[in-house]
Design a protein that fits this description.
The chain has about 250 residues and is an alpha/beta fold. It contains 5 helices and 13 strands. About 20% of the residues lie in helices and about 35% in strands. It is globular, with a radius of gyration of 17 Å. The two termini are about 20 Å apart.
């Protein structure tokens, strides 16, 4: 007899992305597991929901967690929780005259996540390399090409890189726009915090025609990026299975 359902907390919200699309897609994937019951929020304010959750899934952009929320997230993972963090979860942004700045104002959040977003070049195609082909989260997946935002980040603490890419060049529109060093950039990694872990997957940009307001009234196109690729859904399914403790 089952001991009861797995309780998931999905935090999906923020700015500049089609969160309606991402929320529905993630809920469909979560719903494939009959043992999972999911609660949904747009930010981290409901600390009671976090305390009651067995695992956490986030798809956000520029959601600025208050200090108490950052501490609760860090404590959740350190106590043995699993957090599947997607795309812009590690972003904090300010629009300045020099471009988009990513201030280091949320250090505990970024230390818990293992990285902080700093910039990305324009949406385009890039090659993703499987760096740990023996790991069950990526076993059997071959190197692939994807059209998405290539995240350029700074990293905090040790992580186990599962997917990576390389980039040199410019990220127009960002304050930290120059990236001349030919070094690997993590696309997906595991970051241990205490007795728990964060699985971070930077892929999954999506945007609709009205998601850049008030900066742009009507965005010229709909972007789905990695969401168009079966390999991304496979990575998400494995990530959710990992978060629920079955992988």
């Amino acid at each position: 007899m089952s001991a009861g359902p797995q309780r998931a907390l999905l935090v999906c919200g923020g700015k500049y992305h089609d969160f309606d699309f991402a929320r529905v897609e993630l809920l469909k994937l979560l719903g494939e597991n009959p043992e999972v019951r999911t609660r949904v929020a747009e930010d981290y304010a409901n600390l009671a929901a976090l305390r009651e959750a067995d695992f956490l899934v986030t798809y956000t952009c520029d959601v600025k967690a208050a200090e108490a929320e950052q501490r609760a997230l860090a404590d959740f993972v350190a106590a043995g929780g699993r957090w599947l963090a997607l795309h812009g979860t590690n972003s904090v942004m300010e629009f300045t005259k020099r471009g988009v700045a990513c201030p280091r104002t949320h250090p505990l959040l970024m230390q818990t996540l293992g990285s902080q977003f700093l910039a990305h070049p324009p949406v385009g195609k890039f090659r993703v390399r499987v760096s740990r082909p023996d790991h069950p989260l990526v076993a059997g997946i071959r190197d692939f090409e994807v059209e998405d935002e290539l995240y350029l980040s700074e990293y905090h603490g040790e992580s186990e890189t599962l997917l990576e890419t390389r980039f040199t060049g410019e990220a127009p529109g960002f304050v930290e726009k120059s990236w001349p060093e030919d070094v690997p950039h993590r696309v997906m990694y595991l970051h241990r915090v205490g007795r728990g872990s964060v699985l971070y997957n930077t892929l999954g940009h999506c945007r609709g025609r009205y998601d850049m307001r008030p900066i742009v009234d009507v965005y010229p196109r709909v972007e789905r990026c990695a969401w168009n690729e079966p390999v991304y859904y496979e990575l998400l399914r494995r990530g959710l299975a990992w978060a629920a403790g079955s992988l």
